[in-house]
Amino acid sequence: GKSGYDHFMLKEIHEQPASLRQCLSGRIDELAGHIVVEELDELEAPRRVHFVACGTSYHASLYAAALLRDAGVPATATLASEFATADPPLPNGTLVVGITQSGETADTMSALRDANSRGAETLALTNVVGSTAARECDHVLYIRAGPEIGVAATKTFSSQLIGANLLVEKLLGKTTTSRELIESLRDLPSNVQAILDDSNAEEIVDEYLDSTAYFFIGRGLHFPVALEGALKFKEITYEHAEGFAAGELKHGPLALVTANTPVFAVVTGNDENARKTIGNVKEVEARGAPVIVVTDGQSDAERYADAVLKIPETHERVAPLLANIQLQLVAYHMANRLGRSIDKPRNLAKSVTVE
Ligand code: M6R
Question: Ligand 1 — pocket residues by CB below 6 A?
Fold first, then answer.
């Protein structure tokens, strides 16, 4: 049942402290300062990694590929439905990773089978034990999020991001993981709980019920979060929403920005990325758009915002997950105010088993 929540989606959003704790359970050796992923003990470090996935899982793939590239491992992410036509070269030493919550998505399975038939090693990052992806891939890493009923993926996306971190540390063959990352993972469940307890997302959406469209912007690791924020929003509110790389605005999307298009901007830390995104925030503000900033307060982004969704300070790899929780709540509360069918949005299925 829904345990007292109005919707499975809200219940699953609130389960995240527990589902993330479960994902990390036994996988952090704090004393030794490293990540333990027993099921991947046989996996040898690949020379390059190719992620394939759809929808929300594709956004997790963009994030995962960015982490690997940051560590010097060539990595790309392809939409599974585009894999056949993209036909990427899979030279020796390529690992193809399918990220799929259900483990049953037809597009993802077909990309994984194609990769397998071309001799690549395959790995499934999935939530469902014994799923098709888990059975057919050479390796499997479970995200242990527990069953997700809502069509909109929420807790599984958060666990995919953490699964990506576990995978990356493992693939790098690292004997130690940075202390900051280990501590941020340890503090993650309580930081998520703090957001759930204090979020003002419900009040904020009330201000913007009659807008023309809703935009989400982010840079670097927050770009996949911008895409995910918009996907969740459009799935359950049926309103037009788009996610953009913050720097792409002036290459086209800025033409759509008006006083009637709220822009959700994700800005954490106080580095070059943050500074540049704040520049993009000023661009949309100059066009009269309401700006809602998701921030940890380290920069002065709030100065340019009409509303602020606050997240705790954490490791830069964990911040996208925290920011996304606020955007999950934004999508949920907006859909709820509009009276949409949140757990079963029109035209959508939980698991897409046709190509
Ligand atoms: O089960 P999968 O992770 O393979 O599903 C992929 C997509 O169909 C899925 O993420 C879809 O985009 C969700 N409805 C997003 O909320």
Answer: 54-57, 100-102, 105, 108, 151-153, 235, 348, 351-352
Of ligand 1's atoms, which has the minimum distance to the CA of residue 105? 4
Burial degree of 70 (CB within 10 A; 0-12, 13-18, 19+):
middle
Q: Dump pLDDT digits (tens) for 122-139.
A: 999 999 999 999 999 999
d(CA 194, CA 186): 14
DSSP letter at 235 equals H
Quick one: which of 127, 68, 70 has its CA closest to 99?
A: 127
pLDDT in tens, 37-66: 999 988 999 999 999 999 999 999 999 999
How far apart are the C-alpha atoms of 152 and 276, rounded to whole Å? 31
Q: How far apart are CA 90 and CA 92, in angstroms?
A: 7
CA of 272 to the centre of ligand 1 (A): 32
Residue 349 DSSP one-character state: -
